[in-house]
Design goal:
The chain is an alpha/beta fold. The chain has 14 helices and 14 strands. It folds into two domains: about 100 residues, Urease, subunit C, domain 1 (Roll), CATH 2.30.40; about 270 residues, Metal-dependent hydrolases (TIM Barrel), CATH 3.20.20.140. The chain has a six-stranded mixed β-sheet, with helices on one face. A four-stranded parallel β-sheet has the order 5-6-7-8. Strands 9-10-11-12 form a four-stranded parallel β-sheet. It is globular and about 70 Å long. About 5% of the residues have low confidence.
């Protein structure tokens, strides 16, 4: 048995921390009990920071780790897509595998216990098979030519069979409204929902919305210039377009866990439609990636108000300087200081576990679970001159600082 204590223990069974709390775990990491220290000074291990469950990275493209440091920032989505197309497959398979393996190891040491990962190929499969981190692999589908829908689905089915030969949980998932024909959005969604899970890039930028609503803007012009078929101009949001394509293939409300990734342009109307169509919707925010590409953040106040569970991802090293969950949470805290740390940690741990269907094992520090244990150092307190809104929402909870780092215990 091991015992750890800290100034702030977040079990995440509630958003409030246990001050001077302890957790006891079996040698294999199974939680035995939590509580308040009778005498903090008598504890063998007492950490001056935060203890919490392991993180769940709800959106990552780990196979793109070889692209770290290669991209210009602030190009917008059209410019980012041009860079992806120019830089993809410019390194050897050996280098790609080494760099994605290093990235997974670093995330593991920082406390990530599970990951919803996007794959376009089999590069990551062997690493995932032997890695202690749990991954659900979403086999991302592209294809804007309607006549190629059947061939694309045959290809992703073969990739799914290969992933399963490695013992991985893997299934098709649609990429986005603008890289796929309407037929392929529906076909890949139907195939993916057989596994009970979908992940979809949705409303990532104003450029995407301009393309779908009005048939104009940089992304539209980019596709025309490159001779790529354009998506239908719907006059509605890309999110509503996606939901319409789901309704074309499966009964409503749609069963399964559906993750809407980014949602930087989410509206109150869009959130309401998502809740009406999807039985179990989730939102994944990747703030540092959004700032990297187009200097935009998701509408966190609206997301919180919607009641749709929020998860946190890092996206890839093509659109981020690091794959660090604490840095993502610090970014969110700085932009939205009214959100208390306990809620941010719930997004990064509990909600991600629920999306992946692993809430019986991961996400909270409860007896019988094996969620991993993370120590976050260099935390601060309520900032001087905090607003009444902050004090009402965050109380006296600790705050992350720019020096905060996480490590697996």
């Amino acid at each position: 048995m091991k015992r750890f204590a800290a100034k702030y223990l977040y079990t995440l069974t509630s958003p409030e921390p246990i001050v001077n709390g302890f957790v006891e775990v079996e040698e294999d990491g199974t939680v035995l009990r939590t509580g308040v220290c009778a005498d903090p000074s008598a504890e063998e291990v007492f950490l001056d920071g935060v203890l919490c469950p392991g993180f769940v990275n709800a959106h990552c493209h780990v196979e793109l780790s070889y692209m770290k440091g290669l991209f210009r920032k602030g190009t917008g989505m059209a410019g980012f897509i041009d860079q992806i197309n120019a830089l993809r497959d410019t390194q050897s398979l050996e280098d790609k595998v080494r760099k994605l393996s290093d990235a997974m190891d670093e995330m593991w040491e920082q406390g990530v216990v599970a990951m919803a990962d996007i794959s376009n190929c089999s590069d990551s499969f062997a690493v995932k098979q032997r890695h202690p981190m749990y991954t659900r692999t979403f086999l991302e589908v592209f294809g804007a030519v309607p006549q190629e829908c059947a061939a694309v689905m045959e290809g992703v089915t073969r990739l799914q069979e290969e992933a399963r030969s490695y013992g991985l949980d893997a299934a098709p998932t649609p990429h986005s409204c603008y890289t796929m024909s309407p037929q392929l959005v529906t076909a890949s969604s139907v195939a993916g929902l057989k596994s009970g899970f979908l992940s979809f890039h949705s409303e990532e930028s104003d450029e995407e919305e301009q393309m779908m609503r009005y048939g104009s803007g940089p992304m539209w012009d980019n596709r025309i210039a490159n001779g790529i078929p354009t998506p239908p101009v719907t006059g509605t949001s890309s999110l509503e377009y996606f939901l319409d394509r789901l309704k074309a293939g499966v009964p409503v409300p749609v069963e399964g866990n559906v993750l809407l990734v980014h949602e930087c342009c989410l509206t109150e109307e869009g959130a309401a439609v998502a809740k009406a169509v999807l039985r179990h919707p989730y939102l994944a925010v990747c703030p540092l990636s959004n700032l990297f590409i187009h200097n935009m953040l998701p509408p966190i106040p609206l997301m919180r108000e919607s009641g749709i569970p929020i998860c946190v991802g890092t996206d890839s090293l093509s659109s981020n300087d690091q794959l660090c969950m604490v840095d993502e949470l610090y970014c969110l805290q700085q932009a939205f200081p009214e959100v208390p740390l306990g809620e941010l940690l719930s997004w990064a741990c509990r909600n991600g576990a629920a999306f992946l269907g692993k809430e019986d094992v991961l996400g909270t520090l409860e007896p019988g679970k094996k969620p991993g244990l993370v120590y976050i150092s260099e935390v601060g307190s309520v900032p001087a001159g905090a607003s009444a809104l902050y004090l009402a929402e965050a109380g006296t909870a600790p705050r992350l600082t720019e020096k905060s780092k996480s490590v697996r215990l």
